[in-house]
Amino acid sequence: MDLRKITEKLTVSPQISAADVAALKDLGFRSVVSNRPNGEGADQTSFEEIRAAAEAAGLETRYMPVETGKVTDEAAQAFGEALRDLPGPVLAYCRTGTRSATLWALSQAGTRPMTEILAAAKSAGYDMNGVARRIANGGRTPTDTGDAKFDVVIVGAGAGGISVAASLRARKPDLQVAIIDPADIHYYQPGWTMVGGGVFAAEQTAKTMGSLIPRGVRWIKSAVAAFEPDNNAVILDGCRVVKYDRLVVCPGLKLDWNAVEGLGETLGRNGVTSNYRYDLAPYTWELVQGLSSGRALFTQPPMPIKCAGAPQKAMYLSGDAWFRRGVLKDIDIQFMNAGGVLFGVKDYVPALMDYVGKYDATLNFFHDLVAVDGPARTATFAVNRPDEDPETVEVGFDMLHVCPPQTAPDFIRVSPLADAAGWIDVDQMTLRHRSHDNIWSLGDVMNAPNAKTAAAARKQAPVVAENIAADIAGRSATAQYDGYGSCPLTVERGKIVLAEFGYGGVLKPSFPSWLVDGTRPTRAAWFLKERMLPPIYWKAMLKGKEWLARPEPLKVAPDRGRPPG
Fold it and tell me: What Gene3D superfamilies has UniProt attached to this entry (predicted)?
């Protein structure tokens, strides 16, 4: 038997035989539902045979046949009612299990989130995106035909989404463009490190979304529920449908605070903070100012994460503040890194190690934060060093700065646009989807092997805009992304190691070495970070002005496979 568990109560499977029923009884099943009409296949065991075997074994049964491709709203409702009435666990079967999974998915609409329904079915091997519109409509077949339609639809109004919208409008002012995003506020997230270091005020990093949407671009203030790429459609919460000629997907990523046991309950108190959240970055600075002795932990989860240098930036700025106050000697700084290196591009490590030494910080590699007890001020780490037995250690703290685990958003991971790991599957040069030629992606959500930073999105947006413009004109892709990312590592107040690199860790400096030597801490890089980058972000990048971000011409034709990086 091919049993596929969807929930604790329901498992689905392809056709079973009467001989399988005894095994189902031994496995703990208490009910069997048939969703396959009798006589559908020449070698099919009839429901009467299944029922006789089930009654002999003490199992309840229901015969709820559904023809292939004809799962009605009424059948889904009846399936849900049967699932509530029957003792569980329940085994439902049809020819392949797909009809049973579909009936379950539709029956759960309105009682479970869309992403949870799609994810549960997907984990059992069934893709329910084909009925996503019905799920979004409460399990009922939509009758609305008044779909909105645009030349280009952009999912996500973060750094990538607004920038690509502005770059598209700069190239093609008459293009009908829509951005879908439910947020009221847009954040300059690179500034939160500076907020946590007492340099910026939090208010400097936020503006209303409406003030930033480019003129002429329609803002659809809604969340996305699912994608129908074969129908060129995006399904919104509430089952509204937006259709497109071309689609750009850039909703950012999900900070998975709940992946660490106890973290959500103690954030913002008990000395637990994070610069990865707007409302918590000021608390970081409050803790730094208030700490004169004790242990400060700074954590970094497994990759990928946005701005891989941010966890240690918090450590350096905190260490510098304690150094300036003369209390550093009484503070034990511990950097708890789930990975095995301080920074992924080796050219920048020597300068960073100088500051690790200056702040007398202890580097603990292969330490992954798994639990926090705020009131007890203890953090638990899973330690998985190569060639050693795994272990778990508890470490006490007076201050804990957490970088949370990060994933693609739920509605992306369960979509037909995602790769096996849940990220949007793109060609890393053109940023075009590998399977759907009228879809592009940029920013943190796609699977190109680059650093997930705002600087990367600044370079990617013109590439996507250029290639969409070429596609509209009937030409092949003309621009390529070289993997550029930038990480201004704030090693002390007034100095930064400006890491700039592309695919494969190749250095990609924007300035001559006499002005900014990125492998060394410089005041010029600090001036860039503090004074120049915020206005460049607000007034250039989000306005479609491509300063130092003009796309490179495509050097080789993409082959839809992964080019060398």
Answer: FAD/NAD(P)-binding domain (3.50.50.60), Protein tyrosine phosphatase superfamily (3.90.190.10)
What is residue 1's predicted lDDT score, i.e. its pLDDT? 86
Annotated active-site residue 487? The verdict is yes
User: Which residue among the candidates 94, 239, 307, 403 is catalytic per the annotation?
Assistant: 307
CB 141 within 8 A of CB 135: no
Q: At what angle do helices 114-123 and 98-107 cross, to 10 degrees?
A: 160
307 included as an active-site residue: yes
Residue boundaries of the structural domains of the chain: 4-136, 149-253+408-553, 257-406
* Residues contacting 326, CB < 8 A, separation 6+: none
Does 3.10.290.10 match the CATH number of domain 149-253+408-553?
no
Fold of 257-406: FAD/NAD(P)-binding domain (3.50.50)
The catalytic residue among 94, 239, 250, 487 is 487
Q: What is the pLDDT of residue 239?
A: 64
For residue 95, count CB atoms less than 10 angstroms from its CB and return exposed for 0-12, middle for 13-18, buried for 19 or more.
middle
Fold (CATH) for 4-136: Protein-Tyrosine Phosphatase; Chain A (3.90.190)
Counting as low any pLDDT under 50, the low residues of the chain are 560-565
pLDDT in tens, 172-185: 999 999 999 988 89
